[in-house]
Amino acid sequence: LTAEPPCSQSVPAVDCGWWRDAIARVLGSGVGESFPDIAGTQSTGDRGGAPNTQPEIPRGSPLHSLVIIPLLARGRTIGVISLGTTSAGRTIDADLAAVASDVASRAAIALDNALLYRKIHEQDRRKNEFLEMLSPELRNPLAPITNAVHVLQNNGSDAKRHDWAREVIGRQVK
């Protein structure tokens, strides 16, 4: 689940209230939470909110343990990754948590890069639209200026034509 709009719908299947609340807390604080033994002890995790129902992965088995890790990029939380085990004999130990944190860090960088790329693409599109709108406004005065310069270059010492050309250039520049 992420905090940015189009991605905020990436985990619509989490219909367990305390899990959604834990995700919201991690999104808000940027600090991960763990639930080492959901089924056996009804753990309160690191930050409170004792689970009273055992969550299930979408179309899957009940979870035994769960960790929610923030996706941190450039000093802000842009989402979370939830990692759970479905086997009572398997828990999320320090090694698995370290791997999950590394994956979360890489995912955050990739997601942030994608968001930056989209933002740059949008700014480039707006710049192109602006230039398309501006180009006729620049072309209209440039045509008479170009003609006036041509007159100045090709008409030797004709003072009357030189005065006319200077007036055209001055008027079009203004």
Question: How are the SSEs ordered, and which strands pair?
Answer:
Layout: H1 17-29, E1 33-35, H2 38-41, E2 65-73, E3 76-85, H3 94-154, H4 159-173
Helix pairs in contact: 3-4
- Low-confidence parts: 1-10, 41-50
Mean pLDDT value: 78
The geometry reads as: rod-shaped
Q: In this structure, how is the largest beta sheet organized? A: 3 strands, antiparallel
| Helical residue percent band | 40-55%
Order of helices and strands: HEHEEHH
Distance between the termini: 55 Å
Q: Walk across the major sheet and give the strand order.
A: 1-2-3
Alpha carbon gyration radius = 32 Å
* Share in β-strands: 5-15%
DSSP helical segment count: 4
Task: Please describe what this structure looks like.
The model is unreliable at about 1-10 and about 40-50 (pLDDT under 50). It is built from four helices and three strands; from the N terminus they run H-E-H-E-E-H-H. The two termini are about 55 Å apart. It is an alpha+beta fold and about 170 residues long. Helix 3 (about 95-155) packs antiparallel against helix 4 (about 160-174). Helix content is about 55%, strand content about 15%. Strands 1-2-3 form a three-stranded antiparallel beta sheet.
